[in-house]
Amino acid sequence: MKRLVACVLARLYQCGFVIAVISGASGAASAAIVYESADNRLIVSGRLATASIWRHDVPEDDHDPRDYGSRIRGIAEHVFGNGWSGLVLSEWAFDAYQDNATSNRFKREQYAGLSHPRYGTVLAGKQYSVWYDLVASWTDYFSINGLAAQGTFGGRRLAGAFEGIGRADRAVSYRNRFGNLNVGVMWQAPRNARREETGVAGTQTRGVQRDRSLQAAAAWHLAPSLSIAGAIAHSDIDDYDETPGTRVDADMTAGLLGLRWTPGHWYLAAIGGTYHNLIRAPSFTGYRRDRALDTAHGTESVAAYRLENIAPGSVQLYTGLNALFDGHSAARNVTFIQGIRWVFFDARAIVAFEHTETDDRDTDGQTPAGDGQTGVLLRYNF
To answer: Where is the signal peptide (predicted)?
Structure first.
């Protein structure tokens, strides 16, 4: 334990230049509104984040700090009158370390929308799904781990874009609140990701094609601190990778239920879902081919307590479970998460220490190598 603490302190020191740079910029946080008039506003915001992770029983792991979700976004807002307003948002991920080996330089979100207090909000473009907004986000609480058992950011493309469960591309959504009920629906336009490959067997069609996706979600707030929610999603997909040159019907269908209770300083949430043709086989140890699994089930839970008046800002203690199960083998990914997070500078700065232990099984029911990880994260929201 002493060695672990020493390593954590050393990594905090190595990552310290990030805090030094962003702390100096904290006074400019009010400058995020770069232009404002009676009817228009332009906002720039984002995040700098770095993490160092120790993978247990992996001698070659170098623990080097790396970028962990840095991004920048621009938002343009306009007030039309009669309660209507419009916005355009563009958010891009970038690597704060400029590491050419990483692939986190990409468009995270890009959409335009109209909103009215009574008639709701319509968004068009690449955006977070109503599946995530109204249900799955309830357990998106951990600083480093999590989200492995809800299917949101899985699927055939980065961040759940293709099936529309995560940050859906080419999507149109509608969200509104009716009393104690929040509702959302979303539709995804077709996308052709097929290609022609020439080999020994001749020219064959590979890739996938999405005809459309539909999604609906609702959250019912039973009391100020108690809510239940549910979401369903379906995507019409033709898969040419299962058997090259042959179309295979690989429609994705998924469902999710959630419960959240937030009394006082507590935060308690749990979700459970079932996923058909969504989870990729390599998610579990023992599969040799990269394909969508016919059936998988998952559950996530988090319990957190916020401590006040012991440091500037607040200190949060949390624990939770991520458990994903293959529906047709003994494979499972079970992760127990414990952590502590310090949030300060008006919730702009975050320092987190997180530890995980695993109870995984491969497709034959055997325990694969590896038993979790320990990490430290530094983040600043500007």
So the answer is: 1-31
Q: What is the DSSP letter of 158?
A: G
192 strand-pairing partners: 209
Are the C-beta atoms of 281 and 158 separated by less than 8 Å? no
In single-letter form, the type of residue at position 296 comes to: A
Measured over the CA atoms of residue 131, residue 160, residue 45 and residue 225, the dihedral's sign is positive
**Residue 334 and residue 359: Cα distance in Å, rounded?**
5
Residues 6+ away with beta carbon under 8 Å from 286: 329, 331, 362, 363, 364, 368
Give the separation between CA 274 and CA 84, rounded to whole angstroms. Answer: 38
Tell me the β-bridge partners of 305. Answer: 266, 317
Q: How many CA atoms lie within 13 A of 108 on its CB side?
A: 18
Residue 29 confidence class, pLDDT cut points 50, 70, 90: very low
* Residue 225: partners with Cβ closer than 8 Å, 6 or more residues away: 261, 262, 263
Tokens of 97: 């370390």
Name 317's Cβ contacts closer than 8 Å, sequence gap at least 6. Answer: 304, 305, 307, 339, 340
- Kindly report the pTM of this predicted structure: 0.89
Q: How many residues does the chain have?
A: 382
Alpha-carbon gap, residue 362 to 283, rounded angstroms: 10
* Contact present, 106 and 339 (Cβ < 8 Å): no
* 130-143 pLDDT, tens digit each: 999 999 999 999 99
- Domains (range + CATH), the chain: 4-54+64-277 (2.40.160.10)
Rounded CA gap, 58 and 298, in Å? 27
- Give me 305's structure tokens: 């307590």
Q: For residue range 226-235, list pLDDT tens digits in order.
A: 999 999 999 9
* Residue of 339, 338, 340, 349 lying closest to 312 (CA atoms): 349
In terms of Cβ atoms closer than 10 Å to its own Cβ (0-12, 13-18, 19+), residue 87 is middle
